[in-house]
Amino acid sequence: MSILNQNLLSLDFWQDKVTYAGHALPTGSVGCAAMNITDEQIRSLVQLAIPLAAVVELIKAGTPTAEHFSAAKESVLQITQMMRTMYPLSLFDFPNDGHDIQQIFSDEYIENAIAYINAAQEIGVGAAFDEQNKKGIGVVKLICELAQLGSTLMIYKQGMIEFAHKLHNSKRTPEGYAATFAEHFNAAPTLSLDNPMWMQLTNTTMQYVSSVMPEKGIPQLVKRMHYVSFVGMFRSDLFEGLCVGHAPRLCPICGKWFLTTDARQTKYCGGLAPGDKLGRTCRQIGNLKGREQRELADDHPIKAIYTRRMNTITQYLHRGTLDEQTAAVMKRLAKDKLERAIFDHVYAKGSYEAEMSQDALLKESRTSIK
């Protein structure tokens, strides 16, 4: 399948499932997985997209040349190769050899893209409905989508990770998640420039289509959503997941986000635990460490450090020298560090105590809140 025929910014919703790139997943899976794309990967995507951003500006002005499109080809090739290694974007079928990219940046496609841009300058949006411009429209759309991938991923992670942490303390039901949502976001959303989250969710189109769900094999009536940005798509899927009781959770062992799909207090993901020579999953390791944690005496050095810090945070909160939001973040960070110290003896004997100091936790919490 050609890359131009793959809907990078479309989701199908059906009951508690979402279909992305032909794969049916629990709703919320796509938005949850996007939070695991590393900051290093995002920085690379932003850097690779610089030539594409320049071409997008020329497209808006109606002045790109064949040379500009040819210069964009290498960026598109490198970005799609990166996407093959980043879940959930890796769900798409991108050829290893980049054959599709070479084809769509051929003289035929580039000439059609320039013709489409010129037509759009003259007659407006009507040019997008002309079948003669089909190839050019696909090229322009792909360039615009990939140009904003890195920057919108950055926006998404900055806006969602703090909210996802707050969901840890929610009642694990749609109603509990709705209450946390109302506390974190503006309860009366407005379509204004000072409320960018809602602005990014407005540029969507929706249609109902009969589609064969991968796990069913028979047609189902699904809600198909088309987005103009990756950040809008990821947020939409994450919020749709909350509506059916699915929520992200951070695994304290591997440090990755995973999706919970019921009211059970699932604490660890089912992926392989990093560095475990026996090949055990985080859940298996977590169950063992959970027993160890419950068996730790109150005066054990690891637990004593944690207990002292929790008491100090509570005292500062009562004195009014800490606000409730900062105190809650500090307590969450302290709990995460305790769990890591129980799992990782090198960490427990190394930087654990320093990271658990009041000043260190306060500084980390303020950075997290920002």
Characterise this structure:
- The chain is elongated.
- The chain has 17 helices and seven strands.
- β4 and β5 form a beta hairpin.
- α3 packs across α4 and α8 runs parallel beside α11.
- The strands form two sheets. It has a five-stranded antiparallel beta sheet with strand order 3-2-1-5-4, covered by helices on one side. The protein has a two-stranded antiparallel ribbon with strand order 6-7.
- It has 370 residues and is α+β, with helices and mostly antiparallel strands.
- The longest helix is centred in the last third of the chain and has 20 residues.
Features:
370 residues, alpha+beta, 5-stranded antiparallel sheet, two-stranded antiparallel sheet, 17 helices, 7 strands, 11% strand
- How many individual helices? 17
Strand fraction equals 5-15%
In which range does the helix fraction lie?
55-70%
The biggest beta sheet is recorded as: 5 strands, antiparallel
Q: Let me know the average pLDDT.
A: 86
Rg over alpha carbons? 24 Å
Write the layout of secondary structure elements.
Layout: E1 10-14, E2 17-20, E3 23-26, H1 29-34, H2 39-48, H3 50-61, H4 66-83, H5 99-104, H6 107-123, H7 134-147, H8 149-166, H9 174-184, H10 196-202, E4 204-212, E5 219-227, H11 230-243, E6 247-250, E7 257-260, H12 282-295, H13 301-319, H14 324-343, H15 345-349, H16 352-355, H17 358-369
Antiparallel strand pairs: 1-2, 1-5, 2-3, 4-5, 6-7
